[in-house]
Structure formats: structure tokens, C-alpha cells
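Quick board copy: two proteins, each given as sequence then C-alpha cells.
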Amino acid sequence: MGLIEDLKDPLAFPEDTKSVSFVQTHISMVFMCDRYVYKIKKPVNFGFLDFTTIEKRKYFCEKEVELNRRLAEDVYIGVVPVVFDGKRHWIGKKEGKIVDYAVKMKRIPEERIMKNIFKRGDLKKEHLRKIAYTLARFHLNAKTSPEILRYGDPDVFRINTDENFEQVEKYVGISIEKDKFEKLRKWTDSFYKKREIFEKRIEQERIRDCHGDLHMEHVCISDKISVIDCIEFNDRFRYGDTICDIAFLLMDLEYHGGKVYSEKLWDYYREFAKEEDKEVEEILRFYKVYRAFVRGKVNSFQMDDEKISAQEKEEARKRAKAYFDLAYSYIS
């Protein structure tokens, strides 16, 4: 048996667990036990990330724990070895060869995830206020430096959008219509002419070491707000305008039909983050387009994953199309 099958066995883990459920993304394999979660990085190289060696995977596991403790200190426990003893794989076992590493986290109850609270119809104004306050405080205190500030430069940020269009080109006619693809590219290219908006954000030091992957599945609502799963694998996806960070969460609410909630969250966030300039609405739209397009891209990538079924690939295609349609709705 391979690693996945071995780690679906509850006996493979250091703590007692009655069950193990398994999910995967295009970059991770996740094993969810009763109380803990173990996340192993896939040995993939997408250009914007490279996990192809065990040394790189260990390094990025450690970086993931360090960075995520900023917004979810009590969730991230540490990095543990994945061991093969000649017969099968284990997590944290002392005897055998270390063949990989896993990030160990406390398991968050599904009912506490923002997306599920929203789906149940239980997302309240006070939740949005707490989330806005947590994120605004995080952004105002996040690290910045001359090196980080340069990621707000339009010529530097453009690397991201150029790469997006380049990587999505192969999915034109599959998950995005040619007309929408071309119009989104043209609109994005023309927005970069508004250099003064980007330059003002840099002057205000609004370019910070952010979260980078701020959507509803990563926000946990209980007595306090915890935000998990920030981007550790590429600094340029995490360094950026704080508006680019919050834009992801606002876009995600809108993708799921929560435009009213998105508007309320934005109102609270603007107040707490002291975002008073009128130009901020313009750059928010730019970053919402970017965020929706990235989600379309990532879901399109899943269509190339040989490990998932034809039905899962079709579901990924439909999700990708919906995200690309949302990106287009912001400019049309």
C-alpha cells in the first residue's frame, strides 16, 4: 500500500483516533483525525511553488507553522516526521526512514468555520465586526519594510497578473470563455496606468506581510477569531496591499451569494483599518478581480490532477467558470 492508504488507518497516528478522513488539494494531502489534522505537501512544482524535494517540504512546513501562528497561535502545533519502517508509513514514529514531513494542527470543528456558519444562515453582524477588527488590527501591525513595500509597485504586482493570464490561457474555451478572458486581460492591463493609486498606497505603508489566502474556509469563529492556512510557499503572494488581502474574503462572500454581508464587512473593516481615501474603492475592485481570477485558475489546475475522478474534475471546471464569471462581473 502507498502513503495515502497507510495514513487512512487510525493506527498510523500517535494519538488515539476512531477515524481518519482524507481530502486533497492541488498542493496538499490532508488527514483529519478526531482531534488533530496532519497536512503533507505534495511533491509538485507549479512555478509559483516548488515542493519537489523533502528538504523544501520540511522548510515550508516549518514556515507554515511560524507564519500561521500570527493569526491562529493555538491551532498550529508543529512539524512532525512521516516515517516508513520498511512495511508501511506512520506519523511521528521513531523507528524507520523519514520520507516526508507533516504540519500538525488542532482540528477545528466544522461548525465553527465561517463558510459553514454563513451557509446555515447564522452569520451575524457581530461576527462580521469581530472579523473586521481582527483583520484590521493584523494588517495595521503586520511587518513592512522597503523590500515588502516594493510589492505594491504596479510593475512588480503585474508579474502576478501576467502569470495568471499566461497560466489560464490553456483553459480558454474550457473553464473561461475567450471573450471574457480577453476583456479581463485588457481591463487589468489598463488599470496599471493608474500608477498614482498604487504609489499612494506605498507612501501610506499599506503594503504588508499579509495572509495571502483569506477566504471563508480559513476563518474560524468562536470566542475569538482564528485565521488559518496563510500562504507560506511564495512571499510575493503574501506580501502586498492589505486591501488585496481583505478583497479575497469580500469576493468569497460574494461568490457564495453574500453580497450584503460583504458590504457590511467592508464598512467595518474600513472603519477599523482607517481606510478613508476615496480611491480605495477603485483598488478594491481591481483586487477583487484579481482574487476571483486566481480562484478560477486554481480550480482549473485541479482538472489536470490525475489523482481525482472525472466527476471531481468536472466540478472543479464548474467552480472555475463561476469564479471567472464573477471576476468578469466586476468589470462589466
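And the next:
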Amino acid sequence: MNYESSVAIGTEPVFYTQNFDNTVPVVYQFLKIYPFLLNPLLIILFILAFIFLLIQTIKTKNPSYLLLVTFYLILFLSQVFLFVKWTRYMIPTMPFIYLIIPLALSNNGIMKQFSNSSRKSLKTFLLNSTLVICVIFTFSYFKTTFINDDSRIETVLFAQRAIPVDARILSEPSDLGVLPFQDAFPNFTTFSFYDLDSNSPDATEEQLQQDLSTAQYLVLPSQRILQSRITNPTRFPKGYVFYKSLLNGSLGFKKIYETPCDMFCKITYLGDPTYWWEQTVSVFDRPTVFIFKKSDI
């Protein structure tokens, strides 16, 4: 409990929470978590519905409204200001969101502001739009996560076709995605990229340069480190320089593979499965895996 609470409030630095550095509570949840859990239309409707219901609660002192708003705020505010902001922390708030939206949009809520004819047309439009968009997003997630092949296995199968079995491969150690590579390629080594900026004696720039000089391929099985380094150069200056150089080709490697993102994947992650979302929405089910090949081989 001491360890987990220290991780939650940020006093215990661990590699899998580094993407929460410099994040803004509330804004982060509404930009990088809720749109994934709900979908863009529902989050817009919820914001409008919650503001309306909050105003009505203050005006009318309605105990039912007060109970609903209070329980949502208790669940939301008890999690939102923690250092870690994992998507699963917002799951308990979702039943209240699904109650707030229809309550605020009912005939006794926002719809009361419209005439009877306009009210009927608007309700039909909102109901149909919500149904269609929810079905599209739900199916897209289901197909991306459960029907498509696991992205790590898909990458290994590509690697077995494109990379010689005795090739020297460098990767990172802190992700289970390396396991199928270790079984498939005997010359598979790792470097602790997560510790590059922590002055660790096991992850020095000299050791990295030595490993890069002998490596023929680089495999990045976890997008967590890539996202945190690219989006936070001040916190991770060495990591930022390394990954920026790797991506633009100046490091001497060229990208030969990136986990493909089809139409349904783009819908699920709104076009950006790597950099935008809180990482647990994809890092366990569908991480983006990269393979880079040394340019002179």
C-alpha cells in the first residue's frame, strides 16, 4: 500500500508513469481520457448536460439533482488530482455520466427551452446521432482490440520475414512485447532507455553509443517511452534528442515498420494511437511497435 500510494501521488518515480509529468488535472481527463471512454459526441453532451444540471441544482435545490451531481463530483475529484491519471480511474464515474446526460436532455431539462415541434425533431436527431456514433466507436474498438491480430505478434511475424535470424537487434527491457522477439532472434539485447536521463550507471550515453554501433536493428515495443520523450523535451533532454534523431533519420537508422492503423483504428484513437491518449488505452491491447534498420546494411 505504501508503494502504490507513493506511485499514485508521484513521490515514487517509476518508468510507467513518466507520461504524466507536466499534465494538468481536469483538462487532461477531458482531453485524453473521457473522449476515448465515451466518444466525442457524448463528452460534448455531458459537458453541456452537467453545466445545466449544476445550475438547476443550485437554483432549485432539487435533492435528486444534488445527489447525482454530488456523487459524480466525489468520484471525479477524488481521482483527478492524483499524479497518475490512468484511464481506469475514471471508469467509476461513467454510470453517473450516463444518468446525467438523459436527465439534462429530458423534457423537464434543456428540452423545455424549445417548442413542442422543435423538441421532437431535436430529440430524434440527438437519439439517432448518438446511437449511430456509439455503434461506430464501439465496433471500431472491438475490431481493433479483439478481432485484429495482436500488434506485437504481428510485428514479430513481419520481423521474421524481413530480418535475418542472426541479426543483432537492440530493444528496451521494460515491456512484455520483447518476449516474442527474444524467442525468435538469438542476438537480441536491450538497453534501459527509460534510465537514460536518470544518470543511471547502467544506462549511460557511452553505453548507448556502443550498443548502437553494433546493432543492426532497433525494435521499440512500447510507445510509452517514445511519447513521453518526444512530448516532454525539458524533462527528458537526452531521451528527446535520441528519439528525435531516430525518427528524422539522423541517427543512422531508417524506419522499416510501424504497426498499421486501419480505418477502425483511426476511429478508435481519433487518428493518433501513439501520442495523444493516456497510454493505458492502447499500450496493453494495441501498442504501436516500431522497427528501425541501420541505413548502411
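Board note added afterward: The mean pLDDT is 92.
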